[in-house]
Fold this sequence. Notes:
Distance between the termini: 41 Å
Helix content: 25-40%
Shape: elongated
Amino acid sequence: xxxPKLVTLVQNLQKYSILKNLSCLQVxxxxxxxxxxxxxxxxxCHLPSRRVVCVARSRTFREKQGKVLLEGRRLICDALAAGxxxxxxxxSSVDQLRTLPLDKLRRASFVKVKFEDxxxxxxxxxxxxxxxxxxxxxxxKLVFPQQxxxxxxxxxxxxIRDPGNVGTILRCAAAAGCQRVLLTRxxxxxxxxxVLRAAMGAHFRVPIVPSLHWEEVPxxxxxxxxxxxxDNCSTAPEGPKEAEKPPAPPRKAxxxxxxxxxxxxxxxxxxxxxxxxxxxxxxxxxxxxxDRGARLTLPAVESHLYHQDWTGGHxxxxxxxxxxxxxxxxxxxAEKTDGRRLLVPMVEGVDSLNSAxxxxxxxxxxxxxxxxxxxxxxxxxx
Length: 382
């Protein structure tokens, strides 16, 4: 950071009420490093820690100001390697700067603070003493590693709100070599600190497109993509003869433990499907609520055991949240593309698989199938 940038940095620190007393402000130079860098020394200042945490971790701030917070050397280095733009780097020791690619940090402002402040701001049990604020990355401007050809597989997260699950799913997608990850509105913010921690750098290894309306999802898929649904709530079929037979499709929404029954006012026209009338039925004692439940049927999406072949060319897999399940829009897209409901059998009495666990099983099964098909066609993926 050059001396002229110090003025801008001080103004920003004052703007967000991080620094009010200028008497503690000191300017130093990292003369011992290969490249001389100027930084502010605020170790003698009393910083309003809660205010810093609010600025750094508030979703409203991230969205309105276009900033994200990254913590730890590895995550910061991954971000810099992908072309993310750093703005401010907080550190507690000059020696920590030696482990960072300083040539990619020339545009950033450097601020030295007490390690106690880092500990308060940190989301880690054992802080590394370095935290950076970056401009919110745009997927179209990042450079992702291309060590191998990506799988023709896209993941779609549908209303997954648990940050640990989303982070693990992103990590799984990056490890399997997925083409991209799409997240619909209602999912947790991908730049939430807990998501970042669980993803272990996946944000900068696989393209991630967040906050999509369902109408926008097809824009990120090829016209030949088949969309499949993850069923993580079904039990194993009873009996050896039934083990290879998927269960018959349910007749109404209440029969699906993995589909949301909540109304969606934006797409209300999809929420009721007329059920074929049963001329043999002579029951007049059913309640109005039961009749209404019978009328609430779903698009026809056949079930399919996960280990049987279900991948073709371009494939997309929808993972729903554990609380509300898949949205009806997901079922409609699967029906339109002739997709399947992928069944991961479980023993009776088990409620469901964790969303991230179900995603891991299905993603690596897809990788196995696509890799095998690719090898047969002369295409190789690691």
